[in-house]
Amino acid sequence: MISIEEFRKLAMSFPDATEEPHFEKTSFRSKKKIFATFDEKNNRAVLKLNEIDQSVFCASSEKIFYPIPNKWGAQGWTIVELSRVRPEMFEDALIRSYENVATKKK
Question: Of 9, 43, 57, 61, which shows the fewest CB atoms inside 10 Å?
């Protein structure tokens, strides 16, 4: 299980990461682009993965990682059930999400 404190510590460890509100959620950003959100009410994260990473994480456990069930999911936005995910797996997914957003060319 990942707590908001652990989530925050990991997300804020990246260069140029910022924490900002995003509607009723907390977002973590790189250069104003969201790479993760935390939904405290439902104890879920949403990460921005590329197509390959999304398919790998979702295939590893459909009850922990799954695409948002709309067009956002088709763009890589992936829900993570924080009460079920192993810390090392979450850290790996968060790193990939950050790298996907922070290194994307304009």
Answer: 9
CA distance 104 to 87: 26
Helix (H) or strand (E) segment spanning residue 2: none
DSSP states of 57-93? HHHH-TTTEEE-SSHHHHTTEEEEETTTS-HHHHHHH
99 token code pair: 């790298």
Q: Give the number of other Cβ atoms within 10 Å of residue 85's Cβ.
A: 21
For 23, list phi and psi in degrees, rounded to 5: 55, -125
Which residues does 64 contact at the CB level (< 8 Å), separation at least 6?
A: 80, 81, 84, 85, 89
pTM value > 0.85: yes
Q: How many helices (H) and strands (E) does the chain have?
A: 4, 6
